[in-house]
Amino acid sequence: MDFFTNSNIIFYLLAYLVGSIPFGLILAKIFANVDIKSQGSNSIGATNVLRVVKQTNPSLAKKLGIATVILDAIKGLVIIALAMFLNAPSETLWAIAVLAVLGHCYSVYLGLEGGKGVATGLGVFLILIPIPTLIGAVVWIICAKVIKVSSLSSLFGLTAVVLSAILFNNGLEVGSNAPVYIIAFIIYYKHIPNIVRLIKKEEQKVI
Length: 207
Fold this sequence. Notes:
With 207 residues, this protein is mostly helical. It has one domain. Helix content is 72%, strand content 0%. It is built from 11 helices and no strands. The longest helix is centred in the middle third of the chain and has 28 residues, at 58-85. It is globular, with a radius of gyration of 17 Å.
């Protein structure tokens, strides 16, 4: 019984279950009546929402894409904010961050399938390591404007976050940069198909 009354366990379950909510899939289905899991890249993220919905409703596509980014980012952020409010230790906060990203990438509601984890990673990083995250966001925006390839821009932005975290926030108050590396590894791993397409010069641009 103590298992279910332990605050850390409750936070961990919430992080994974809330992180698993496929907002992109839900928004596209409700507002555009399309199933993004069966079209485009089959991902539940904002890029696929934008790409698929744009085929039938360009004006709506951008709005749903932005909404998906915001909601996916908020998923982990709100649980961490709640844990912070209740004075949870840094170790718990970072565990919540990892589980929220895992939930998005391997959603319990989608048979352990999911998105790439970029927006959810952005949300948890923003509240835990804001300065490195803002640097990564600037890198992402610049890359997105110049190369117009979502996956590559995201990977450059993520790399900037990791390098900036090492430079400006070594230790992360938990004695190790491991949580950042774990989250980055999950996101890099989910991008392997994109990396393969990039090597083959088959990755689509977002116009």
